[in-house]
Q: What sequence folds into this?
């Protein structure tokens, strides 16, 4: 079995290979280093085997009789140095190197907010591990508090996860660690939404949580950080939710410690195999995931694999309403093409603000209304709208689009239908 390790799995510069073809490597062995003068992250082999090939973009290893209970240990001793050596990055999707995020100590106070929101629907591997191993999350958070000199830790998760909340409350013994319950809407896991809701500070789109004396860190990142510091384990495994049109239809599987570099198809096989009919394979969640193929490898930031439902035929002409919190313009265009629809207009949520090379919402999850945008798409000749809006924005679209005789499609429809989840439309507060 071939394992593929892309040299760019994170924000920053690509890693630099330090292995050559035909070289034998071990699970946990460093195979690519971050450039010394650049932002980046190390990459380790998740398997025993022989290097098949090395290119400018990836390393391919032929796996050979790996004992997945073992790995080569990290060499550093200082916690932050271990985090850097381990190759740990944000595992919630962005992939920002963790050693940089935690690299500057708070002078006084400071809050570490653990993002356990499980923000995207269907994805559920973070909550699963919290329920199984709450103490490891708490221990990891304590390490982060020590590294950053933060005075308080808050574990943020949706209030609907009553069992996880109960388990955490019973496990927390430190008065400096607490729980904050989030609403069950999207995108409560966006880091500025967490700072707003848990700390009462609404940051401008261009600002990071540090502007509010806070750091937001993904729950699995905290688990893996504890592994690096306590067990000296490099980042070589990943928890993944696999769901959708599998052989066991409308199913959701939680897979723990899947070795990085394994292909999407092989991971799906681990969950029982792919069904005979599906619309697309999504890597990530229903809102922000991207279309992928079965031969693509699992990387550090992979959180979900979803075999979505077949695409519903769309109208001849469709308008796109792009939200900073969901699928981007290119993703909506891709979906529209799969629906057989011609895009006749593109509008953006009025709160979507351009920050550097991406859109940021001015107030994530709080919608000011979308009537003007929907009317503009109607005027452009749209016979329906395809949207990527958050829960609240979708609610406002549904307050006007049907009155204009515009059916509404959502970027998440295929994923949610594949597991028999209710589609995102109008809701009541």
A:
């Amino acid at each position: 079995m071939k394992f593929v390790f892309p040299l760019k799995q994170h924000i920053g510069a690509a890693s630099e290979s330090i292995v050559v073809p035909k070289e034998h490597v071990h699970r946990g062995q460093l195979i690519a280093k971050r450039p010394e003068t650049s932002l980046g992250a190390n990459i380790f082999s998740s398997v025993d085997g022989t290097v098949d090939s090395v290119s400018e973009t990836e390393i391919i290893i032929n796996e050979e009789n790996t004992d997945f209970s073992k790995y080569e240990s990290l060499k550093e001793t200082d916690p932050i140095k271990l985090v850097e050596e381990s190759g740990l990055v944000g595992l919630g999707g962005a992939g920002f190197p963790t050693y940089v995020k935690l690299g500057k100590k708070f002078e006084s106070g400071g809050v570490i907010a653990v993002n356990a929101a499980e923000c995207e629907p269907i994805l559920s591997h973070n909550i699963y591990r919290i329920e199984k191993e709450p103490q490891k999350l708490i221990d990891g958070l304590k390490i982060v508090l020590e590294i950053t000199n933060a005075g308080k830790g808050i574990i943020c998760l949706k209030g609907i996860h009553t069992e996880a909340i109960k388990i955490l409350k019973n496990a927390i013994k430190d008065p400096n660690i607490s729980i904050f319950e989030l609403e069950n809407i999207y995108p409560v896991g966006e880091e500025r939404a967490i700072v707003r809701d848990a700390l009462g500070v609404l940051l401008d789109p261009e600002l990071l949580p540090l502007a509010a004396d806070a750091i937001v860190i993904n729950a699995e990142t905290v688990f893996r950080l504890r592994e690096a510091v306590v067990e000296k384990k490099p980042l070589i495994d990943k928890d993944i939710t696999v769901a959708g049109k599998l052989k066991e239809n409308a199913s959701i599987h939680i897979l723990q410690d899947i070795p990085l570099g394994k292909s999407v198809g092989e991971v799906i096989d681990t969950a029982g195999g792919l069904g005979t009919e599906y619309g697309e394979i999504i890597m990530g969640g229903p809102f922000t995931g991207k279309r992928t193929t079965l031969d693509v490898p699992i990387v550090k930031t992979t959180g979900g694999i979803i075999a979505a439902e077949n695409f519903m035929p769309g109208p001849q002409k469709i308008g796109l309403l792009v939200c900073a919190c969901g699928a981007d313009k290119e993703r909506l265009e891709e979906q529209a093409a799969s629906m057989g629809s011609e895009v006749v207009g593109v509008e953006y949520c009025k709160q979507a603000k351009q920050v550097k090379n991406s859109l940021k919402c001015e107030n994530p999850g709080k919608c000011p209304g979308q009537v003007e945008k929907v009317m503009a798409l109607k005027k452009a000749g749209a016979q329906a709208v395809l949207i990527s809006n958050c829960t609240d924005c979708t609610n406002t679209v549904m307050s006007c689009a049907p009155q204009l005789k515009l059916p509404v499609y959502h970027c998440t429809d295929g994923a949610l239908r594949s597991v028999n989840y209710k589609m995102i439309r109008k809701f009541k507060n």
User: Anything to note?
Assistant: The longest strand covers residues 251-259. Residues 105 and 146 are 9 Å apart (CA to CA).
